[in-house]
Amino acid sequence: MLHLPVPRSAPTRTSQLLEELVARAPDGPVDLEWLLSHLDRRSFGLLLLLLGLLVVVPGVATVATLALLFPAVEMMLGHSAPSFPRFLSKRPFDFKRFKRFTVRAGPLLRAIENISRPRWNARHDVTDRLVGLVVFLLGLLAGWPLPLVNVIPGIVVVLIAIAYLQEDGLLLAVAMAAAVMSLLGLGWTLWTSAAAVISWIAV
After folding, report:
1. What's 77's DSSP letter?
2. 133 phi-psi bin (left φ>0, alpha ψ -120 to 50, beta other)
3. Which residue ranges traverse the bilayer (predicted)?
């Protein structure tokens, strides 16, 4: 008897996961503990997407940047699910602003999804650790106290998260290349800025 291979089902679209999560959110402030309690089995990917978007949103970027470091470290350590220390997980933030931002970002997310498809060949544990390392470095860079320095790392984290959720190895490679360029470019800018300040102080 001939057994035909069962076609692999495509993962749920990232924009759909995001819309479902936003729809569940209460009207008032929420905290990271609430977010973690509403994530599915792909919690790392969706959490990175949420935090990457929050890093770009004014008013909550500082908390989101700090929060981004914790799942990144846990991915590097091979943990199966994210967690936060209590002082961070219970800190509320205004989710209404995030809702408005996701509405504006929705068309861009769907455009990326339309050109993305599952192309996942790497081992998950290796991929998780690599993604965790890159996101950790982007989080450190986004936390540098300069105006708008958080925007590019936040956007790159969002791109990495979409590739991770969509299981798209090609998009992930593109996102990693963008991360390396961002780290080198912003790193050079911060280095030259610091050198200029030191030279000014030394005069």
Report:
1. T
2. alpha
3. 44-70, 148-165, 172-202
